[in-house]
Amino acid sequence: MFSPVESRRLYRQVADQIRSMIASGELAVGQRLPAERELAEQLSVSRPTVREALIVLEVEGLVNIRMGSGIYVVRRHAASVAASEGEPVEGPFELLQARAVIECAIAEEAATRARPEDIVLLDEALVRMSGGVNDAGAVIAADRAFHTGIAAIVGNATLIRVTGEMFDMRMSPYFEKLASHFEGPTTWRSALEEHRAIRDAIAAGDAIGAKAAMRAHLTMSQKRFSESFGEEFSGEEERGRDKGPAKATDKT
Amino acid sequence: MFSPVESRRLYRQVADQIRSMIASGELAVGQRLPAERELAEQLSVSRPTVREALIVLEVEGLVNIRMGSGIYVVRRHAASVAASEGEPVEGPFELLQARAVIECAIAEEAATRARPEDIVLLDEALVRMSGGVNDAGAVIAADRAFHTGIAAIVGNATLIRVTGEMFDMRMSPYFEKLASHFEGPTTWRSALEEHRAIRDAIAAGDAIGAKAAMRAHLTMSQKRFSESFGEEFSGEEERGRDKGPAKATDKT
DNA sequence: CTGGTCAAATGGCCTGACCAATTTGTATAG
DNA sequence: CTATACAAATTGGTCAGGCCATTTGACCAG
C-alpha cells in the first residue's frame, strides 16, 4: 500500500515495459523488435536480463522468437496468465473462507444433479482416503479427488479447475510448514467423517444438507488449523502480503 | 508438417524436464528445488540456461522463486496457460455457468455484510460503466470492477482474485473475437440495468435477492451471447495454432 | 534466370564474476 | 536460559564479454 519500492526483479520490469508498449500499439502486431543487443543498450540493462524478459513474453504468447531472425509481436493482449504474476499467496484462513463460499455453492448445485455413477466416484475417493491415513501424500490426493469430484458432478470444467486450483494452494512453502504441524491420522479421520456426511447429502439429493455439510467441513478444517498452533502464526502474517486481515470467522 | 526437427531450445528442454518431474510428483509440491548452480551442474548446462527455464516455469505458475531463499514448487500442473498449447480454455457458456454458481454465492454473502462505503464503490463502477457506453475498453474495465467489487465486500482476497481471473478469461483471443460480434451500446445498457438490480439488492441487505439478481444477470449474458451468433462458433477454431511463425511479416 | 557460396545479423548458450536478499548460526546482553 | 544483534553462508539477480548455430540476403558462377 505504501510504496512498491520497485524491488521487483529487473527482468520483470523490462517485460512489463515491453508488454505495455505492445498493448498500446507502439509496437504493432507483426512488427519486429530491436535486436536483443540493441534493447539491452537502449534499456541500460544487460543482455541476459533482456533475454529473460523476452522469454516471459514468449511464454505469455505475446511474441515469437525466431533464431537468427528476430523477435516478432504475435498478439496484443496476453491471455489471462495471471496465475503467477503477483504474489497472490493468500493466508490459509482466507483461503478456507473462500473455499467455504464457493464449494458450498458447488455442493448445493451438485446435490440437485447427482447420478449414481457420480456417487461411485466420490466413494472411491473416500475409500482411498480411509485406506491411507498413514500416507500423507495419498490422503491429500484423495482429499483433492473428493472435492474436485463434487465439482465434476456439476459437469463444468471451469468449476473443476477452480476447485482444484484452490485446493492446490494449500502449499505455499509457508502453508505446508504449518500443515505439517497438525495433519495426522486423527485429523484425517475427522475430515473423512465430514466428507462422508457431504457424500450422503449429495447422494440423497439434499441440496441444503450438502451445502451445510460442506460448510461444516471447511469450518472444521479452519478450527483444526487454528487449534493446533493457535496464534503461533498470527504475528508473522505479513508473509504472503495479505492485504486485509483474514477475518476468517464466518458466521454461517 | 515437414520439419519435425525443430531442435528445441535448450532452456525449453530443461523447463520440460523439470515440469514433468513436478507433474510426476518426483518434485513434491512445497518442496524446494536444488539451487540454480546445482541444477546447472546436474543437468550439464549453464546457469543462465537454468534461469531461463525456471522463469518459464514461474510464468506458468508452477514454481515460486524467492530471492535469497530458493525455488519452491507451487502447484503440480500448469494452471490455465492458454499460451502454451492445448485447449484448456473452456467455452464461453461453461465459463458463464461457473460464474453463475460462484458469483451468486459471493453476492449472497456480500449482501449480508455490505457497508455504505462498499456500496459507494459499486456505484462508482456503475457510473463509469454508464458513462462510457461507447468505449468498449472502459466499459469492460468498469464491468470488471463491479464484479470484483462485490467480492471485495466479503473482504477475502482469494475471492477477489478468483472472480477477477474468471472475468479475465473473456480476454482469450478466441472469446474476444466472438464478443466483438455482439457487444454494443444496447447490450451494455441491458447489463447495466442488471448490475443496478444487483447493487440495490446488496445495498438493501437482501441476500436472496442479490443471489437471484446475479443469477439473472449471468443468465442474461449467456442469452445475449447465444442470440447474437447462435452455434456459429461450435465448429471452426484453429486459433490456438499460432505456434507457427506469424505470417504478418509480409507487409506491414 | 538458377543455383550455390559467403558474410552480416541475430538468437542461443557459455564462463566467470559480483551484488543483493535471505537464511542460519553464533555470540553477546539481559 | 532467553532473546536480541550481528556476521557468515547460501541463494537468486545482474552484469560483462565471448563463441557458436541459424537465418537472411547479397553476390557470384553457371
Task: Write out the strand line-up for the largest beta sheet of chain A, numbering strands in chain order.
Answer: 1-2
What would you call the structural class of chain A?
mainly alpha
| Molecular shape of chain A | elongated
Give the total of beta strands of chain A.
2
**End-to-end C-alpha gap of chain A:** 31 Å
Q: Return Rg of chain A in Å.
A: 23 Å
Largest interface: A-B, 64 and 66 residues
Low-confidence stretches of chain A: 1-7, 79-89, 229-252
CATH class of the largest domain in chain A: Mainly Alpha
**CATH domain fold name of the largest domain in chain A:** Four Helix Bundle (Hemerythrin (Met), subunit A)
Oligomeric state: homodimer
Please estimate the helix content of chain A. Answer: 55-70%
Number of domains of chain A: 2
Describe the structure.
The structure is a homodimer of 252-residue chains. Chain A has 252 residues and is mainly α. The first copy, chain A, folds into two domains: 64 residues, Arc Repressor Mutant, subunit A (Orthogonal Bundle); 149 residues, Up-down Bundle (Four Helix Bundle (Hemerythrin (Met), subunit A)). In chain A, strands 1-2 form a two-stranded antiparallel ribbon. In chain A, strand 1 and strand 2 form a beta hairpin. In chain A, helix 2 packs across helix 3 and helix 5 runs antiparallel to helix 9. Chain A is elongated and about 65 Å long. Chains A and B meet through helix 3, helix 4, helix 7 and helix 8 of A and helix 3, helix 4 and helix 7 of B. The structure holds a DNA duplex (30 and 30 nucleotides).
